[in-house]
């Protein structure tokens, strides 16, 4: 079953990962409005597959953008092949990132944006789905392995290549549980499948909690001294 049109407002971003609220600026490259943004929040998903379990974090980023009052400020940045929204949270300045490419190459986009903003790996927070966790279960993980997630694996690999080995594993990650498939051989079909209406309703409170977790992380991270040059 496809995404429900009435699944709103928290799941508006499911209907199009790069459309709707995104302001097109096709004639020019969109540049950062801040000299340096800390940290960066990057959502891993599949553009063109809205409403699937693998793209649940696009709804998280949409809710976060609304909380930060930048929901209408998404703009295309061709330098890193992503939609970008810049926001302030107290003294913190941060960049929200929605990659255009498929999940397994999201790392190239995240690494490029990290380079453009002059960030360290620790200043990048990945938000991604997690089929090892029950539906709606959230966990903020400070680094670690990809555990089979193709988007996270891509990010770790590309960050390591651009900076130095092992740095990619230092990225904080907010994992959003999408439930476990019934059999290991059905994982690909499961993560690319759509949520049932009951699952959509069950996910609404966790999405709000995910936003709170991200905002708390940004506030805490912004109080640390930067380790970048």
UniProtKB/TrEMBL annotation:
Question: Which parts form a coiled-coil structure per UniProt?
Answer: none
Q: Which superkingdom?
A: Eukaryota
GO-annotated molecular function? peptidyl-tRNA hydrolase activity; tRNA binding
This protein's UniProt keywords: Hydrolase, RNA-binding, tRNA-binding
Q: Which InterPro entries has this protein been placed in?
A: Pept_tRNA_hydro, Pept_tRNA_hydro_sf
Q: Signal peptide span per the entry?
A: none
Q: Which Pfam families match?
A: Pept_tRNA_hydro
Q: What is this protein called?
A: Peptidyl-tRNA hydrolase
